[in-house]
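Feature request, filed as a ticket because there's no other form

It would be nice if the structure record came with a short human-readable summary line next to the tokens. Right now we just get the raw output. Example of a typical job, pasted below so the devs can see what we mean:
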Amino acid sequence: MSQWDVLIIGSGAGGWVLALLLAPKGYKIAILEKQAEPQFPTRGEILQPNGLKILHAIGMRSRLEQDTQHQWDRVHFCRAKDGKTLCTIHYKNLPPPFNTALIILPEVMHRHFMAEAERFPNIQFFQGAQFESLLEANQQVVGVRATWQQQSLDFHAKVVIGGDGVASSVRAALGIPCKTHLYSNGYLTTVIPRPRHSDNDLRFYTGKGIYFAMMPLDRERYYLMYMVPQHRQEALKVKGMPWFKETVCALHADLGALLEKPMLSSASHLSFRPAHRVRCRHWTANGCVLIGDAAHAMNPHVAQGRNAAMQDAWVLAAVLEDCFEKGDFSQAALSRYETLRRPEIEALQSLADELTWLWESPWAPVIWARERSFRTTHQDRALHDKVLGTVSGVKVAPYNLYDRWRALHLWGPLQEEA
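Raw output as currently delivered:
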């Protein structure tokens, strides 16, 4: 095959954004996607302000907003047993114009990326190209060998980008040491017709071993996500929608009335979404870079996975331009991307792990601490804005011991308890 400037393995959000940032500069880009036909799980993706800012820069934000016809600026965390709101996060506290967020289905996002890429003849998309191995010369990656249209072909490039997800073949071929953790809980997901009398806000319900999310996708549909133990997912998928609707509608009366069992009966099929964390010793090699979940998957509780991948692409694009200018694609040159990104990623992964422990625990003392922390965050503007800045990606800051102490508010009653 021809010589490429940039060869991207995997057609996730990070890879597409990187291609669309570099294409206007004239670089020749190939994207290899192993799926012969697009396959999209039933899963809503939250586009946070940091992600929307990048999509705005490549000209996609306005079209996405017009397509989805839905933006939101409030998230409510509620008690599952009675529906009481414990905390509301207000995105309007962020500086405009990036003070709202979107939820979008992966197939909608992919369609817009494909449409945008058609504007650039220097982007070529190879659907159904199965990665085989890396090509190396003089201890540097110089391309990949892949099967495409029943042929084994060599794709040569100045730099290879591994954006091929949690089970990254590129990462494995590089031999990069990493720790992949499968969380004990995953999520059953489905899409339903939008309930009558529903508003535009997101709601998360927590309780004793309960985590349930309701997210409006657009004017017609809602996305639902219910936490289940990883080891029970197959059995619960067999039980299917009857079990799911009974379980969800039984959380509390108001929720059951809103969702209605006939409405849930018309839902799309149930999918199971596992949750992973990936931590790699390093993300770069001579001539090769990992981005997104291939480098640093994180629990979806922090709602930054897709956005973090796009942020990777934003930073990496600038680093690659410098590499092209100097003709240097060594690990030393490429590692500036990792130096810039790793502190933020580690902060997000740590917060995701803490939220996983705090929100999913069935232990009464942890539930008490969780609800108290929610209520304190609702009332304390500084805590609220710190959590908002991190989850939205606008200003990622570690949640330190002092923040945790303030959130527990052990020195007196909360306002509503006074």
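Something like this underneath would help us a lot:
The chain has three domains: 3-44+105-182+276-351, 185-273, 363-417.
The mean pLDDT is 92.
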